[in-house]
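User: Sequence in, structure out. Go.
Assistant: Echoing your sequence, followed by the structure tokens.
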Amino acid sequence: MTGGRWSGGVLCGGRSSRMGADKSLLPGRRGPWALGVALALRDAGVEDVWFVGGDRDQLSALGPHLPDAEPGAGPLVALATLAGHRPGRSLVVCACDLPDLDGGALGPLLDAVDDGAEAAVPEVGGRPAWSALALAPSAAEHVRIAAAAGTRSFHEGLLGVDVTRLHLPSAPFLDVDGPLGPPVHGSEG
């Protein structure tokens, strides 16, 4: 178990333009997709879980909500929003559109950071799957500073951070691209 030093974020601020509906609120096995991701974080031992961005009224009914610092600016800014709200904590953030995510899949990311990695991301198809990312407090602060300086991509926001790529089963980390389209990996939104 991760204990009280971790905070988690479910990133819900995307426009869902390819999906045609708010992804965070689509029905899944454990309720709305965003709730399923929050429950996966809790199953991994993260007790402090926030919905970041998205429909404040509907998501607040599911749990604590943080509005995006800059709505529409992307997932790096959403991560920075959480980092600014929970300073000094290790963070794990996940896209809201991971309907197959479970706590067991997240465990290796949290363990890597607990064991000294600055950041950890699953690797899918030889590329980082930014749909899930764990960060030590120093890396979270680095991202917060980069976003405040105008950086918007995970790749650029993590320059200077040693990101550990973990070869994990890909299915839990494949974000859903559209209502009938295939899942995608490695995307940033």
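User: And one key feature?
Assistant: The two ends are 28 Å apart (CA to CA).
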